[in-house]
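Working notes for the structural subgroup meeting. M.R. asked for a predicted model of this chain before we commit to crystallization trials. I am recording the input and output together here so anyone reviewing the notebook later can reproduce the run.

Input as submitted:
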Amino acid sequence: GCGNSALSHDLYELGYTDVTSIDFSPACIAAMRARYARCPGLRWAVMDIRALAFPDASFDVVLEKGTLDVLMVEETDPWHVSPQAAAAMRRVLAEVSRVLRPGGCFLSITFAQPHFRKPHYAQEAFGWSLRHAACGDGDAGAFHYFLYVMRKGQPLDPRDVALGRRL
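Returned structure, recorded in token form:
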């Protein structure tokens, strides 16, 4: 869900002029279409992340920033995710994998630490490799966030395969 974030427009301004953004809110998408009507390469669609309406292998890059966190918002114990939340995460990630082209890249930006998030991403069925990096300015009081990078068509590290089997 793109929400009302300026990220799509920022990417457009950086030269990425073929950007499709989705959100489940018709009001949000209408507002974003109006706000960025002058940017012809920005497309906006009302869509559910659990059932993407795009054909297989449609995208070179899929980027999510905090959208997957919504699937975990009602979880009270990040060490023991409910079967419902795990299934919802699998469904969304399977859709992302489906719409990625071979060699495509899925980027996920979140506050979710690797020991909580990597088991969800590390599923052999998705057909991608997995890397991550901690990001942040290094100040003692700052929150770190994490960038996860999945590359379609590259194998998972055996240690990540083992993580994925935990779910």
